[in-house]
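ARCHIVE RECORD
Type: protein–small molecule complex
Small molecule: zinc ion
Source of inputs: curated submission
Record status: active
Notes field left blank by submitter.
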Amino acid sequence: MNGTGGADDALRRQVVECARSLFSRGLTHGSTGNISARTPEGFLITPTGSSLGTVTPAELSLVALDGTHRAGPKPSKEAFLHAAVLRARPDANAVVHTHSTHAAAVSCLAGLDPAGALPPLTAYFAMRVGSLPLLPYHAPGDTALEEVAERTARTHRAMLLSNHGPVVAGVDLSAATDALEELEETAKLHLLLNGHPTRPLTADEAARLAP
Ligand code: ZN
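STRUCTURE (tokenized, with ligand):
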């Protein structure tokens, strides 16, 4: 499609595999959720209005790191979030964002700690996600979120958008997806444990595992 050859084709297929995997296991629904992967020109991202269950490699949009649409269909309306995280984290080559049920439920709770919306309940959460800052509510498409997300991503690989869902960066698509899933499972545990006396990892135990 854009003449960059085999590496581009392979990356497109990986994005679609990741999309199918998330969709088939109920981590996204309808046309929610978007996935991006860094390329030499910027990043590939799932297009606006697409379902992660049916999007194809040829349908991915190419966007520059400044958010400019370069090629392919119109990108997800949330492409600016991916651009912000990829600019902030040169170590990250992929970003996954979902409205997955349990993480979205936690994002609607009152009284969350803005510095850590979920406690480090398990070692895998501490290793793959680390602390999870809560970003203030922004209406869909409000690009004021871009600056907050970029600033937060400099020091965190994952963040939770209030009344919305998680955004997770990884060194590659597999790492970003694993961390997103760990976050979702920890959100499920957190909700299951509601009302039960709970012992999360201590700050020291979590710090020794931090990514
Ligand atoms: Zn969203």
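CURATOR ANNOTATION: The mean pLDDT is 95.
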